[in-house]
């Protein structure tokens, strides 16, 4: 069989064992975990040093061979999948660098370090990392930078871009840019971390980052609240955000999604009855202004605190006269919140985790129902309730058999729209860029509705291959032209993830 000159040159540069072509191994890198995007590749390259990545990129630029950088492959828009036969450049080997500078409250982190490992390292130093997401045990820090991941605590700490003080990356010509000193104030020109965050591997391959850390959470309390309508839940989320400085998360769930999670994950019912809409809220104390310990909350109409194995800790102890615990604070806030029909609160670690499961396990539960068409959109809060009401009917008008699942980071106006049971099963193979005609009609309808209401077609998942055709709904021709000029400047050969983010050239 003829030897491929690109692969031969790559082997010479980084070693035989780092260029994987065995189909059984390569198969683990060509599909996304939702099953929606499946591609193909001749090879997966796994360099373990920045010089190795630079060599790979330089060789591919020389031969005009496209590359898809890949981290933990937990993305949801096909951005790390070789949909057109690109070589996969895996960064998972970059997991050795993880050093916490407690005095500066910063960490230097290799691209392949798992988000959960960074959490553990920060916690060991009495600090925390501000970005958290359900895929924390598989997602790599480099991947979350490339996609500018958001997750569950953006309300409190911002998205991944917000955490970045410095970046090391290989640009499309193989040159290395490295600025990892972590000076908190450093106003010396273009801020490459901001540019590379969310660039989805199209401008450079991130190999390491310097991130800020935040004070560790000393105590947290979580509440799951039932409402008669989405509108009431959204109003309550706004009131909590405006009046409760310790609010760390506010997540919207709907009755069908919660019932699905209960069924798929064999969880007990968190509240006595069913409600059309739910809020999962968390308050976190990082400052120690609250009294220690948890107490059983009271004063909430219909409260099921302590029920279903997920309720308040009832621990007591440590409560100081005149200082409320976080659980008491949450209980008071919930008690004075209009529209709450029922609530379950927890102030101990086990109870908080148990309540979070109803929200965090939405994605895996939806996947048991079929491969979803995933949309991830932001709406102005004023129109979010009517959007949530309109979308299922609009999807049903196109695909009567389909189910629409809605949930999201409501404090930031996010709704995750997942649709299962479409004609294609949501699956997109080979050269396809977004599923079959029915999927596309659904996406057209939902993204059209989003644009008509002044929203964004991507809150946090990015554009990837899944949404590139709809980018013009949110970005003007001059913005897209500026994006193309940036791409041309940093990746002159056009080899870095060329089939994501930017719409196909006209
Ligand atoms: C989440 O917040 O759980 C995910 O971003 C949503 C999804 O899987 O669609
Ligand atoms: Zn999300």
Automatic annotation (TrEMBL):
Swiss-Prot/TrEMBL cofactor(s): FAD
Entry keyword annotation includes Plastid: no
Domain FAD-binding PCMH-type: 37-216
GO biological process: respiratory electron transport chain
Keywords of the record: FAD, Flavoprotein, Oxidoreductase
InterPro entries referenced in this protein's UniProt entry, alphabetically: FAD-bd_oxidored_4_C (IPR004113), FAD-bd_PCMH (IPR016166), FAD-bd_PCMH-like_sf (IPR036318), FAD-bd_PCMH_sub1 (IPR016167), FAD-bd_PCMH_sub2 (IPR016169), FAD-linked_Oxase-like_C (IPR016164), FAD-oxidored/transferase_4 (IPR051264), Oxid_FAD_bind_N (IPR006094)
Protein name: D-lactate dehydrogenase (Cytochrome)
Taxonomy of the source species: Bacteria, Bacillati, Actinomycetota, Actinomycetes, Frankiales
